[in-house]
Design a protein that fits this description.
Layout: H1 3-7, H2 9-27, E1 40-45, H3 53-64, E2 70-74, E3 85-86, H4 93-96, H5 98-106, E4 111-114, H6 118-128, E5 134-138, E6 150-156, E7 184-188, H7 196-206, E8 213-226, E9 230-232, H8 233-236, E10 241-245, H9 251-259, E11 264-268, H10 277-285, E12 290-293, H11 294-300, E13 308-317, H12 321-332
Parallel strand pairs: 1-5, 1-6, 2-4, 2-5, 6-7, 7-8, 10-11, 10-12, 12-13
Antiparallel strand pairs: 3-4, 8-9, 8-13
Helix pairs in contact: 5-11
Length: 334
């Protein structure tokens, strides 16, 4: 183990103590928890980011938003505003956050909102739209002020929580034992084919409890890119281009494009990156077509980038998709 990680152990102990104390205060009722009047479904993780929460929410909205009046509540990470805001599709990403804005643009019939306090956000959403039948919460597994109806917990195939450690030594926000609170566990970003032996090994290492269901998903990429026009991906990649990303882990997208035989220059920025005018000028100077993600595109919308195209990143279940959807539907109709 690296020396710098060993130096962080005292801070990890302090962090663990704070997490345990906070949980105990809620568990014993010293601090009360809010229970909404409609079903609330949390999509969260134990790690600090990059497990695919927003693509999972997007997947769920695709399936259920035509059947139910749904809402989505997020903190709105990276936004410059405070408090509760209903997300309009024309809002600046700096006001509402890139992921909520992306969801609002893709699902115009869904009420998307942002608020640091999930209970306050839910109360305001119901006041503005009493007809809501259920609310999905993007990243609220650690938000103990809310007692949700159903919890979906994500972990990545390449860095599952059993291979991680608590902050600040690792990336876990709370001990792995907290996973026992989930109703469903999903291993995301898996290889396309995964044998039963590997699945069973993950089930054992993750410590899946009898009351929990385990699923495995991979990333699916759009067959077309969208810009001024929609172009088949295999046509677009015939010309060298710039891949522009500001997401937690662009490696799967990079590897996918390489497998397609694409020739590109990758400009990688941190997750939720706020592009500067200087960076945009540098990108324009490259004078090549640009490919970016839908999430990045909402942050780039204020700039005029010629030949800018987006590729959709979605979720695909390796198997048992129907069983997963039945569980969520049961929670919505609770």
């Amino acid at each position: 183990m690296a020396i710098w990680k060993k130096a962080l152990f005292p801070f990890q102990i302090l962090f663990a103590g704070a997490v345990v104390l906070r949980k105990k205060l809620y568990a014993t009722g010293v601090i009360s928890r809010y229970v909404a009047t409609i079903p609330t479904i949390v999509v969260g993780n134990l790690a600090t980011g990059g497990t695919g929460k927003t693509p999972m929410v997007d997947f769920l909205l695709r399936y259920f938003s035509q059947k139910k009046e749904l809402g989505v509540l997020s903190r709105g990470y990276g936004r410059k505003s405070k408090g509760f805001l209903a997300v309009r599709s024309t809002a600046p990403s700096s006001d509402v956050g890139d992921e909520p804005l992306m969801l609002a643009q893709k699902h115009p019939n869904v009420f998307v909102a942002v608020c640091e306090s999930r209970p306050k956000g839910i109360v305001k959403m119901l006041a503005q739209k009493p007809s809501l039948e259920a609310i999905f919460l993007d990243d609220a597994f650690q938000h103990l002020a809310l007692q949700p109806t159903f919890k979906i917990l994500l972990t990545t195939y390449t860095r599952p929580w059993f291979s991680d450690a608590l902050l600040p030594v690792g990336n876990l926000r709370e001990p792995a034992t907290a996973a026992q609170q989930a109703d469903v566990v999903i291993v995301t970003k898996c290889p396309t084919s995964l044998d039963e032996e590997t699945k069973n090994a993950y089930k054992a290492k993750l410590g899946i409890a009898p009351h929990q269901k385990l699923f495995f998903t991979n990333l699916e990429y759009g067959t077309h890119v969208r810009g001024a026009a929609e172009i088949p991906l295999d046509e677009f990649i015939k010309t060298p281009f710039v891949l522009l990303t500001g997401i937690a882990n662009p490696s799967p997208l990079v590897e996918f494009l390489k497998r397609q035989g694409a020739e590109f220059t990758h400009l990688s920025y941190p997750d939720h990156h706020d592009f500067s005018k200087k960076e945009i000028a540098s990108i324009k100077a490259m004078q090549q077509p640009i490919l970016t993600t839908e999430k990045d595109a909402v942050r780039l919308a204020t700039y005029t980038l010629a030949q800018c195209h987006t590729i959709e990143i979605g979720v695909g279940f390796l198997d048992k998709e129907g069983a997963f959807l039945e569980l969520v539907q049961s929670a919505i109709e609770n």
